[in-house]
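Appendix B. Extra example for self-study. Work through it before the problem class; the solution is given directly after the inputs so you can check yourself.
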Amino acid sequence: MSLVDSVRDAGIIGCGGAGFPTHVKIDSKASQVFANGAECEPLLNSDQRIMEHQADELIEGLALIMKHVGAGKGYVGLKKTYKDSIAALTVAIKKAGFNIELGLLDSCYPSGDEHIMITDLTGKIVPEGGIPLQVSALVSNVLTMVQVAQAAKGQPVTERAVTLVGEIFKPQVVNVAIGTPIRDLIEFAIPLVPVEDMVVIAGGPMMGPIVNIDDVVNKTTSGLLFLHKDHPLVQIRSIPMDAMVRRSVAACCQCRMCTDACSRYMQGHDIEPHLMMRVLAYKMDTPTRGMTSAFICSQCGLCEFACPMDLSPKRAYADILKNLRAAGLKNPHTKTPLEPHEFREFRKIAKDRLTKRYGLTKYDSHDLRLTQFPTPPVVRLSLTQAIGVPSKPVVAMGDKVVKGTLIARIPEGKLGSMLHASIDGTITDISDEHITIEGAK
Ligand code: SF4
Ligand code: SF4
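Solution. Structure tokens for the complete assembly:
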């Protein structure tokens, strides 16, 4: 069986980002492959623990992909400060004997953004609105690489590492079954505030969305940040979009600090958020260049961090993009800058500054322990784990399954991912969104 088929059958999607199906990504040619372990969002520790504890499998997966896409060079991109990960990976790379190098990065945000990582490690610049393959590079999260090595041995994705942090007594990194209810994880970690006052951010504080406490862990859930509903970060996130636009029109002083902090502007891309903020209030028939740059905004949030008036160009861009797409517009920004901005190196933002700015310092630990979460009594697996169409169930109510049984597949000819039972048990519910499995008693 080819690597692409093994990876597709194992249900692997990008673990660190939007969840692009990995079998599609690796069905290509590239000269360089990057395992992304930078984990640049504050508070997350999952990738760091994976690199320490599964270094051999990570390098094995990276080497398999390099071989498959014809790459002569591999990198593991990670922070200079990850001493234990560096030690474990150095041994694993030596054993593997492939042309793989550790790409040591400063502890800055957003060094885990694939555009930024490629420039940091090779100097190449991915075109505006483009993907790494356009510069012959392929980037995947370190856990995805581990899963690729496991897929080659016939093991599908049934669990993942998740950082639990925030208003809980036992912050930690847990290996947890896909579909585990977030409520189970809160109880396990012991909440420090009443659960009804808790707000959950899935992923990191900069880019992660607020999710419902009754949601479940998906294949892309790298962390769960538990905050009190009155925490300043939650308050900023909760301002309705129309109120944010009104505030922006009234308060934006055109200082351009958002532009000077913008990670894509620093790549040399044609985006200047202060120009977009200037025209935000006007309803124009033809969108300006400031508006269409929404297509090349990465939603990293550095503009929000930099703004002295607590405005959010990031959210404004998200809203504009929705409207441009609804109007059927395509991205007109496709230039490839020859060089990044001349001040790129000096304007990097240290991760600790973000942690402090958003009042998260008391939750920050660089050394969370990795533990195994016990098998949950019930899991609810989302049929939409990946970019693409929902998976199609192949089981019926009452079917008995064991961990690893295929329960939903990619519809013929579509983009999506296979889905497997993450615990032994019985199928007790099948809806358009989920498959529920109750564990064997
Ligand atoms: S940083 Fe804030 S106030 Fe300054 S130009 Fe940008 S949005 Fe306006
Ligand atoms: S979120 Fe803000 S800083 Fe990040 S790319 Fe978009 S405009 Fe630039």
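Self-check: The pocket of iron/sulfur cluster (ligand 1) is lined by residues 252-258, 273-274, 277, 306-307, 309, 311, 313 (CB under 6 Å). If your reasoning did not lead you there, revisit section 3.
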